[in-house]
Amino acid sequence: MTERKDTFVQGESEETDPYRDPYCARVVDLYYPSGKKFRKVYLVFLDLKDGRFRQMKIRDSQKQVHLGVSTRDIVDKETGALGETTEEDIKTASKLLSDSFGRHLDQEYRQKGIIVDSPMNWDKEWLPKAYDDQTVYNNERYPRRYQWSEKQQKWFMPKDRQDIN
């Protein structure tokens, strides 16, 4: 058995609450057929124990857990082993979680006719502001791209907002 080479460290101690400090965040704008709009912030939390991956979860800004990936989801099916490094495990878990997140948005919103707009990637630099309501509802960093047409009673994306990401 190869010794793991862990270089990523976060949430090392058991006393640390893994759901206190998010790993990354993402803004998702929801545009309802009625003309209502709602912005959600999804936060990814990473749980490591002794520097080793345990689980990764997505919660929304209302602290509801939507999805999770644990050690058992990322082990090699043939050997039963985790990756060589914690970074490798996080990368594998991130891919699984991202795929699940896309399916979640499809099932919860798109299949109901709700426009889901989230052109950004998962962002680590924005985290200090992720809990700040002023930032969440401020359109400067992540502007809302759709506008409501009163005349047509539907959402549309102006040409000047199509390249925003």
How would you portray this structure in words?
The protein has one domain (7-125). The chain is built from 3 helices and 7 strands; from the N terminus they run E-E-E-E-H-H-E-H-E-E. The chain has helices at 71-74, 86-108, 133-136; strands at 24-31, 37-49, 52-60, 65-70, 115-117, 147-149, 154-156. The protein has a 5-stranded antiparallel beta sheet. A two-stranded antiparallel ribbon has the order 6-7.
Outline the fold blueprint.
Elements: E1 24-31, E2 37-49, E3 52-60, E4 65-70, H1 71-74, H2 86-108, E5 115-117, H3 133-136, E6 147-149, E7 154-156
Antiparallel strand pairs: 1-2, 1-5, 2-3, 3-4, 6-7
Question: What does this entry show, briefly?
Answer:
With 165 residues, the protein is of the alpha+beta class.
Instruction: Specify the helix fraction band.
Output: 10-25%
Tell me the domain tally: 1
Structural class: alpha+beta
Mean pLDDT: 80
Strand residue percentage: 25-35%
Instruction: Give the termini distance in whole angstroms.
Output: 44 Å
Strand order of the largest sheet: 4-3-2-1-5
* Poorly predicted residue ranges: 1-15
Order of H and E elements: EEEEHHEHEE
How many helix segments?
3
Extended strand count: 7
Shape designation: elongated
Short descriptors:
alpha+beta, two-stranded antiparallel sheet, 3 helices, 19% helix, 27% strand
